[in-house]
Specification:
The chain is an alpha+beta fold. The chain has one domain: Gcn5-related N-acetyltransferase (GNAT) (Aminopeptidase). An 8-stranded mixed β-sheet has the order 1-2-3-4-5-6-8-7, with helices on both faces. α1 crosses α2. It is globular. The protein binds coenzyme A (COA).
């Protein structure tokens, strides 16, 4: 783990943010495995996360409560845009504003890196994530029909959302 931790207070939760390094790929993958429903095959493996962190301009943000990792985001910058590739809050810590705080942090870091737009793709049936992104000001700008294929074989659209920074 590298970078300077930043402390923030949210209600009863003291959240400490840290930049994740290659060594944290496994930790992020475990959090993703716990957070994503297996049916949708959205969680990345540690190898996939490490592969991304080892290439191009990408970064991993992890929020800790005490010593427990509770929220993370994986991002990649390309030219003047940042893609939020993966993010999640631990199921035990949902609906406490951690997702909001995560998006605000990713937006600020993207701005600091010179990006003018933050974009992402989300499963059309993911009401929690859509609620989070819309609340943060993201607007829908595209749809890929049947992009996600579930374990049961169903197809679900992907929605592309963007936020001007
Ligand atoms: C989406 C997710 C990150 C939200 O995290 P969170 O820490 O619970 O989010 P917050 O508490 O900051 O909630 C922010 C807003 O998101 C929306 N939201 C969160 N959970 C919701 C739910 N279950 N139903 C509807 N809206 C929801 C609401 O607009 C909420 O604002 P409000 O509490 O003022 O109503 C979390 O549900 C999660 O990890 N889901 C599984 C992984 C995932 O889908 N990641 C995103 C796709 S990559």
């Amino acid at each position: 783990m590298s970078g300077r931790p930043i402390l923030s207070l949210h209600e009863d939760i003291a959240l400490r943010w840290a930049d994740g390094g290659l060594d944290d790929a496994l930790l992020a993958a475990r959090l993703a495995e716990e957070a994503f429903e297996p049916e949708y095959r959205e969680a990345w493996t540690a190898g996939q996360i490490a592969g991304l962190l080892g290439s191009g301009e990408s970064w991993l943000d992890i929020g800790y409560r005490a010593e427990e990792p509770v929220v993370f985001a994986l991002c990649r910058k390309a030219v003047d845009e940042v893609e939020l590739l993966l993010c999640a809050t631990s199921p035990r810590w949902r609906r406490r504003g951690l997702g909001n705080e995560l998006i605000a942090r990713v937006a600020a870091q993207s701005r600091n890196r010179g990006a003018g737009r933050l974009f992402l793709e989300v499963r059309a049936s993911n009401a929690e994530a859509l609620g989070l992104y819309r609340k943060a000001g993201f607007c829908e700008n595209g749809r890929r029909p049947g992009y996600y294929r579930t374990v049961s074989g169903d197809s679900i659209d992907a929605i592309t959302l963007a936020l001007a920074l």
